[in-house]
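Anyone up for a design puzzle?
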């Protein structure tokens, strides 16, 4: 009996916004890589994100390790996008004095 070796497709998919998800879940590649870089094992990640199959987590980590430069560039771009969204939200909805505004709104409804 011989072992059939085939290349399984990488369980990653990109959504309409360019965000990469792992397997059939909503968990992002960013999340898996971040947990891995913080020292979590694939099994620990699977415990924390039970919607992702352990084999998909292993495959995502393997993809990251084989294409580290590309994934790091992707993660940097995602970080820039998150920062831009955060800045825009703070510009539109300034966080200064939010506690006071919420307290005043709550008090006015009494």
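Challenge accepted. My sequence:
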């Amino acid at each position: 009996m011989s072992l059939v070796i085939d290349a399984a497709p990488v369980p990653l998919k990109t959504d309409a916004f360019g965000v990469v998800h792992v397997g059939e879940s909503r968990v992002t590649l960013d999340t898996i890589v971040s947990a891995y870089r913080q020292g979590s094992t694939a099994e620990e990640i699977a415990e924390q994100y039970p919607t992702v199959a352990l084999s998909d987590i292993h495959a995502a980590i393997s993809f990251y390790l084989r294409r580290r430069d590309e994934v790091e560039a992707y993660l940097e771009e995602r970080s820039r996008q998150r920062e831009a969204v955060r800045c825009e939200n703070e510009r539109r909805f300034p966080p200064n004095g939010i506690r006071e505004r919420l307290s005043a709104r709550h008090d006015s409804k009494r």
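A detail worth pointing out: The two ends are 78 Å apart (CA to CA).
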